[in-house]
Amino acid sequence: MKLVIALCAAAFVTSSAATVSGTWSLSIDSPHGNMKTSLTLTQDGKKVTGTFRSQMPDMTVAGTFEDGTLKVETSDDAEHKLVFTAKLKEDGTLSGYLSSEMGDMNWTAERVQ
Fold this sequence. Notes:
mainly beta, Lipocalin, 8-stranded antiparallel barrel, 1 helix, 13% helix
């Protein structure tokens, strides 16, 4: 019984300590083929801010990370708004979709820093 309680406590501490802070290498399945980009994030509680880097100029992102779900969107150019939504998986990667004027695209990411 003590072992079960200890394992549950360890799982709770691990899940509550999950963070998306860091630099992520993204792979986006776009209509033009696979795109490699990056996302640098800083997390303060549930609040997340950062920078999306691609072939276009860097874009500021802001949003939340709650219950294992990341949701951030660009704030620089309302005309070309990007919304990133993903789940933090058990292996530490992110997997989700990117919504843009071109439609929804699947993406995955690995933390590089």
